[in-house]
Design brief:
There is one protein chain. The protein has one domain: 3-Layer(aba) Sandwich (Protein Transport Mog1p, Chain A), CATH 3.40.1000. Strands 4, 5, 6, 7, 8, 9, 10 and 11 form an eight-stranded antiparallel β-sheet that branches. Strands 1-2-3-12 form a four-stranded antiparallel β-sheet. A hairpin with a 5-residue loop joins strand 5 (68-75) and strand 6. It is 20% helix and 36% strand. With 181 residues, the protein is α+β, with helices and mostly antiparallel strands. It has three helices and twelve strands.
Length: 181
């Protein structure tokens, strides 16, 4: 079970995904057709925005807490990234967002807005945050199908163009559950 402290730690680990090992998944487990990426085993699809966004699929299994990071989308020019995490649904999206928000606020240099409903789905909750004056970010949490929760974490340089933040919005809005295979 994810503890109150484990959930923010997992998100912070996502912030430091520099050591991420990219691997392409084969067979029916996952497929990508142009910009759309579908993982029928984990039950989700996401669309990569046009432009300099790269999608890296991670072939590693879940962490000891049961959290999987199957996909990271990166903007090649700015270093912006969106990390998709799938966790066991041990809390509602609102409860997850509140825990994440509280956890991030406890780290020096982080500030975060209050969690609020998001228009990307009926159950989505999220907030914005910053790390000092150099990095901006967003978190969204939504139901991910039977027994799953989707968590999205985006970070980008504060001086990035509006196109980067609109790409983040496009990714957040495109993530949706699909029937598991």
């Amino acid at each position: 079970m994810l503890t109150r402290l484990a959930v923010p730690s997992l998100i912070v680990a996502g912030l430091c995904a520099c050591a991420h090992r990219a691997a392409s998944l084969e067979g029916s487990q996952a497929r990508s057709t142009s910009r759309r990426y579908v993982d029928s085993d984990l039950g989700f699809e996401v669309v990569r925005p046009e432009g300099n966004w790269q999608l890296d699929a991670n072939g590693e299994g879940p962490s000891t807490e049961g959290v999987t990071i199957p996909v990271i989308l990166r903007h090649r020019d700015t270093g912006a990234q969106v990390v998709i995490q799938i966790a066991p649904a041990i809390a509602t999206p609102t409860q997850f967002a509140e825990r994440l928000n509280l956890g991030l606020r406890s780290y020096p240099g982080f500030s975060a807005s209050d969690p609020e409903p998001l228009p990307i789905s009926d159950d989505a909750v999220g907030f914005r945050f910053s790390m000092g004056d150099r990095v901006l970010g967003r978190v969204a949490v939504r139901e991910g199908g039977k027994g799953k929760m989707f968590m999205l974490l985006a970070t980008w340089p504060a001086n990035a163009t509006d196109g980067v933040s609109s790409g983040v919005d496009e990714i957040f809005g495109s993530l949706r559950p699909v029937p598991s295979g």
